[in-house]
Amino acid sequence: MADDSSTILVVDDAPDTLEVMQRNLTSQGYAVLSAPGVPEAIQILDNSPVDLVITDLKMPKVS
After folding, report:
1. What letter does residue 25 receive in the DSSP assignment?
2. Residue 29: left (phi > 0), alpha (psi -120 to 50), or beta?
3. Distance (Å, whole) CA 56 – CA 28
4. Architecture per CATH, 7-55
5. What is each CA distance from 37 to 2, 58, 62, in whole angstroms?
6. Residue pair 30/2 in contact by the 8 Å Cβ criterion
7. pLDDT exceeds 80 at position 14
């Protein structure tokens, strides 16, 4: 089980992938933030402390 203070940001343009990742990580005790693209991820990173980012390497417009 994860430490309650561990926050993971998942970035992926596929909604199904975001849902599965969020569900699986949350079930392991992580606080999970998700973003469907790079601009949203940057906004989250500017406003929230994040311990780990899991991202799709090939994203629309910005990879």
Report:
1. H
2. left
3. 21
4. 3-Layer(aba) Sandwich (3.40)
5. 26, 10, 9
6. yes
7. yes
Helix then strand then coil, in percent of the chain rounded to 5, is 35, 20, 40
Per-residue pLDDT reduced to its tens digit, 19-62? 999 999 999 999 999 999 999 999 999 999 999 999 998 877 77
Residue 14 to residue 46: CA distance in whole angstroms: 23
Contact partners, residue 13, CB within 8 Å, separation at least 6: 36, 37, 56, 59, 60
Burial class (CB in 10 A: 0-12, 13-18, 19+), 55: middle
